[in-house]
Amino acid sequence: MSVSTGVRLVDDAAAINGESPQWDDARRRLWWVDMRRPALHVYEPASGHTEVWDMPAWIGCLAILRDGRLALALRTGLALFDPQDGSLAPLVTAPYDTRRFCFNDGRVDRDGHFVVGAEHHAHVLVERFEDLPGFGGPALGE
């Protein structure tokens, strides 16, 4: 007997460690990361289009800016990514030993600041980034 779950595969990405799904309501697309590949992915349901950008370091999470760019939490620090041209610009170096820690989960808080956590086995660090060049506070999120 076949059971219909209503679930369908939309991106057969063969991800190593898929994380941090973020819906961009303004642009109607889903962003997510493959932490250990490392890569940034986007899926557009209306067209079925998918795209992948390889990253220079492990990527833990992202934040969507109002102008469509993304703040990315890479193992080496925060970076600003522009999906229009694929450019990646460093913003802040990681506040930890990158040989031992990496950014993992994060979200934009209700005040519009990017809050990210770093992990290494049993140790967890949490950083709240404010006043970052080009997108501090209210430029993040909705």
Task: Give the secondary structure arrangement, pairings included.
Blueprint: E1 18-24, E2 29-34, E3 39-44, E4 49-54, E5 59-64, E6 70-74, E7 77-82, E8 87-93, E9 102-108, E10 114-120, E11 123-129
Antiparallel strand pairs: 1-2, 2-3, 3-4, 5-6, 6-7, 7-8, 9-10, 10-11
Q: What are the defining features of this structure?
A:
single chain; 11 strands; Neuraminidase; mainly beta; 49% strand; 142 residues; four-stranded antiparallel sheet
What would the principal axes of the Cα set say about the shape? globular
Helix content: under 10%
Mean pLDDT: 84
The largest sheet is: 4 strands, antiparallel
CATH T-level topology: Neuraminidase
Radius of gyration from the alpha-carbon trace, in angstroms: 16 Å
| Strand adjacency order, main sheet | 1-2-3-4
- Specify the CATH homologous superfamily: TolB, C-terminal domain
Question: Alpha-carbon distance between the termini?
Answer: 45 Å
Low-confidence stretches: 133-139
Proportion in β-strands: over 45%
**Structural class of the secondary elements?**
mainly beta
Taken in chain order, the helices and strands follow as EEEEEEEEEEE
Number of domain units:
1
Q: Which CATH architecture would you pick?
A: 6 Propeller
CATH class: Mainly Beta
Number of strands: 11
Number of helices: 0
